[in-house]
Specification:
Blueprint (H helix, E strand, L loop, with lengths): L12 E2 L2 H11 L5 E6 L7 H7 L2 E5 L3 H10 L5 E4 L8 H4 L8 E7 L5 H10 L6 E7 H7 L10 H9 E9 L4 E2 L6 E8 L9 H11 L7 H5 L6 H11 L12 H14 L2
Parallel strand pairs: 2-3, 2-5, 3-4, 5-6
Antiparallel strand pairs: 1-8, 6-9, 7-9
Helix pairs in contact: 5-7, 7-8, 8-11
């Protein structure tokens, strides 16, 4: 079966065996690990994962690749689901597996949809022990960006609220076929409990997304999405001691948690 990369799915197939081996080594997989792979593609990484892990659950959006993988990889510990990871009910799917010690999620994420995938996964509060993702190097920089920097955005906030993030190694564009125009990086995300908890976590996620939607606008303008009148917004500003022209990128994770709590109070 001839496979051609599809631009609509942002497909760039990993072909560098050294990178593949480094990803698996970084994931610290054991014979008691359940590995969830996002976008196995042509199975270059999958072939090694099934050798190292107890089970591999792979999500592939391209049905042509699903057929190819089933022909190419004959393994009793591999389950392939033809579905968009953004629409998958991962919590239900992993119930089909048992007797594993940990869950590791691995993925070579399409550049065009990296942020929605990571945001969506972390907001689901899945019981994942660690995430190993290959993403665009520029996006990897954003994950650890601090307030008042150009790379700081909603993803930076969520990553720092939900995980301890680290950049493991760079991957040259020549490691893929077809080769993308930019280099990639492999990152590790280890979930942890942030010391400050929002009163309503779902609202915190909504506020975090909303305030960064239009970066050029002030925070006040972006808060109008929450049906707050000017009096309520001014009260929030006074209670949180926010300056009039403050923008989202000036707020720390703690600031955004406190902001979401105040919005929740004013909308009760």
């Amino acid at each position: 079966m001839k496979i051609v990369a599809k631009k609509m799915f942002g497909q760039n197939f990993l072909i560098d065996n050294n990178v593949i081996n480094n990803i698996v080594k970084s994931a610290k997989i054991t014979k008691n690990s359940l590995v969830i792979e996002i976008g196995p593609g042509m199975g270059a990484l999958t072939k090694l994962l099934v050798k190292e892990a107890k089970y591999v659950l792979a999500y592939e959006i391209d049905y042509n690749l699903v057929d190819y993988l089933k022909e190419e990889i004959k393994a009793n510990n591999l389950t392939i689901i033809n579905q968009d990871i953004l629409k998958a009910n991962i919590s239900e799917d992993i119930k089909k597996f048992n007797d594993y010690d940990e869950i590791i999620m691995i993925g070579n994420l399409p550049y065009y949809i990296t942020t929605p995938i990571i945001l969506g996964l972390l907001e689901k509060n899945l019981k994942i022990n660690r995430y190993i993702f290959m993403i665009q190097d520029e996006v990897a920089m954003r994950l650890t960006s601090k307030p008042q920097t150009k790379d700081y955005n909603a993803l930076s906030v969520l990553i720092q609220y939900k995980t301890k993030a680290s950049k493991l190694f760079m991957v040259k564009n020549t490691s893929f076929n077809p080769a993308p125009k930019v280099n990639s990086a492999v990152i590790e995300l280890i979930p942890f409990e942030y010391p400050l908890k929002p009163k309503n976590e779902k609202l915190f996620y909504q506020v975090n997304r909303a305030i960064f939607k239009q970066r050029r606008k002030t925070l006040k303008n972006n808060l109008k999405e929450f049906n707050l009148n000017n009096d309520k917004i001014n009260t929030i500003y006074n209670e949180l001691h926010l300056k009039e022209a403050i923008r989202a990128e000036e707020l720390s994770v703690d600031d955004i948690i406190n902001l979401s709590d105040k919005i929740g109070e004013k909308n009760d």
